[in-house]
Specification:
168 residues; alpha/beta; four-stranded mixed beta sheet; 49% helix; binds zinc ion
Length: 168
């Protein structure tokens, strides 16, 4: 009797540990993440499970920095190639508008499954570089609409819906 109690207890406590497998989120990125998730809800995109597969959403001082081109953010992966962290260069914190664009860009890589960029420098959130963050922020609502409506995760959903219809 005593041993079965122990097994049960271990199972129970490991379930709790799993549920508490929390992701560390830098407070300076949290408002942007909450805002991004509001859009996910609007577009019915699940983000909850994916969020808890991450370890950190963090601001770091280890990304490449130079006057010509800095890496403002990136996803880092574990040895199995699964995304582990979303990291933002501290330099993006110097301007709230740049931070907003960079944060949405990196969140979209992960949560909206943008594996590639859509262009070199076309003034959209998912461009490789942006010469003018200001232009994007000026047109923010429209930019976010494009980001979500043209996202790989929603495009895939549309294809599946189409295939379903087709098989009727
Ligand atoms: Zn990117």
């Amino acid at each position: 009797m005593k041993s079965s109690f122990c097994v049960l207890f271990i199972l129970f406590s490991s379930a709790i540990t799993f549920a508490q497998n929390d992701v560390q989120i830098d407070g300076r990125l949290k408002p942007h993440l909450d805002n991004f998730f509001d859009y996910c809800k609007e577009y019915k995109i699940d983000y909850y499970d994916k969020l808890f597969e991450l370890k950190n959403i963090d601001v770091v001082d280890t990304l490449h920095l130079s006057p010509q081109a800095s890496t403002l953010g990136m996803l880092t992966r574990d040895k199995n190639n699964n995304v582990e962290n979303i990291v933002i260069n501290w330099v993006a914190l110097l301007d709230q508008e740049i931070l907003k664009v960079v944060a949405f860009h990196e969140f979209a890589h992960y949560f909206l499954e943008y594996e590639k960029h859509i262009c070199d420098d076309c003034g959209k959130i998912m461009a490789i570089v942006n010469t003018s963050y200001f232009d994007i922020v000026k047109d923010w609502d429209n930019q976010v609409k494009m980001l979500f409506e043209e996202s790989p995760i929603l495009k895939r959903r549309k294809t599946v819906a189409y295939l379903d219809q087709d098989s009727d």
